[in-house]
Amino acid sequence: MKIGLNGQVIQISNPAGPEVYTINLFKNLARVDSENDYTIYLDKTPTEEFFNEVSGGNPRFSYKVIEGKRLWTQYHLAKELLKNPVDVFFTAIHTIPIIRSKKTKFVVMIHGLEYKFSEGFKNPLKKFKIERPIRCAAINSDKIIVPSKATKDEILKRRWGVKDEKIEIVYEGVSNEFYERDEIEVQKIREKYKIEDSPYLLFVSTIQPRKNLPSTIRAFGQFLNENPEMKNTLLLIAGKNGWDYQESLEAPLKYGVVGNVKFLGRVPTEDLPALYSGSKGYINISYEEGFGLPLLESMACGKPSVVSDIPAHREVGGSLPIYADPYNIENIKDGIFKIMTSDFDKNLLLDRAAGFSWKRTAEKTLEILKETVKK
What we know:
Helix 6 (183-192) packs across helix 9 (272-278) and helix 10 packs across helix 13. The chain folds into two domains: 2-173 and 357-374, Glycogen Phosphorylase B (Rossmann fold); 183-354, Rossmann fold, CATH 3.40.50. It is of the alpha/beta class. The strands form two sheets. A seven-stranded parallel sheet has the order 3-2-1-4-5-6-7, sandwiched between helices. A six-stranded parallel sheet has the order 10-9-8-11-12-13, sandwiched between helices. It has 14 helices and 13 strands.
C-alpha cells in the first residue's frame, strides 16, 4: 500500500496540540509498520536529523517537498497527488484538496470543533472562512478520525450529512518522557522558572478565549482571599499567546493576584514533566476541548487535576479529576480548594494514563487506513 502523509505542520518551531499529535503519530507508524510505503509531503526540506527522528530510520519512509506558499493544499499538493496518486492520503490538518484523483482515498483527522471560540468567529464572513475547510474535509473525505466521542458527537450535531459509520474514534497517546521526576529535577526546574519553594498549580495550553483563563484567575483570587494560610500559592500558566489573549494577561491585575500568577510563555516539552511533577496538580477550566492531552500528561506524571466538566475531559480522566463548571466561579474556587487540600491515589492516575499510548494510536490508525483502501 502507498500511503501519503500531510507533514506541512511538523517542522514548526513551537508545536501545539495538533502538531504534537502529528509528529507522534508519524513516529509510531514508522515503528509499527514495516510493510507499506510512506511519503511525507512537506513544504520545506527537513534536516537529515529531523527526518530520521520522525521516520525512525524506517527505509519505507520517504519525503517529498512540495514548493509553493499560497494555496499549498488546494493547488500544489493537489497537483502532486493527481500526477502521482497514492492509495490513501492521511491529513491531521482540517483540509483536503477539493480536486483529487479517484485512485486515492482520503482520511482526515479532525481534532475538535472549538473554532467557534476562534478569532473573529462572530463575523459571518470570517465564520464562513473558518468553518468551510473543516466542513468540506468532513463531507468529502472517505473516512474521519476523531480523538474522542465528544468530537464525534459535535460533528454529528452539525447538519453536514456525515454519517455515524464514517467517523472512527482513535484516542491520542502520551509520550514516554512524561513520568514523575525526582526532587533534583524538580528543584532545577523551580530554579529555572524562579518558582522558589511555593506550591503551585499548572496550566498548560495556548492562551485563547476558550481556555477560560480570566474566570480561572478570578476563582484563584477568591481562593487565596478565603484561605490566607495558602497565600503563597502560585498559578503557573505555560503556553504561548494565541488570539484575543489580552483579557487573560490583564486578569491578574484585575483580580488582585499579580504576585501569584506567572505567565511562563511557551515551555519546552522537555521541561513539562518536571513542572507537572513539582506541582500540586494540573488545572484547565476550558469551555471546550477535542481531547485534553495535558490532562493525560499530568496523570502520567502522577498528578491530580481540576478541570472543566466537559465531555472530552470526562472521556480522558474518567472519575479521577476534580470537575468544575466552567461558568461557575464558586464551583471553580471549590475545585481549587479540593486539589490543594485533598490526598490522591497516585497509582490510579498512573494506571489511567497507561491506557493511552501513541503506539496504540498508530496501530488503530493503520487499521483504518487499510480498511479505507479496501472499500
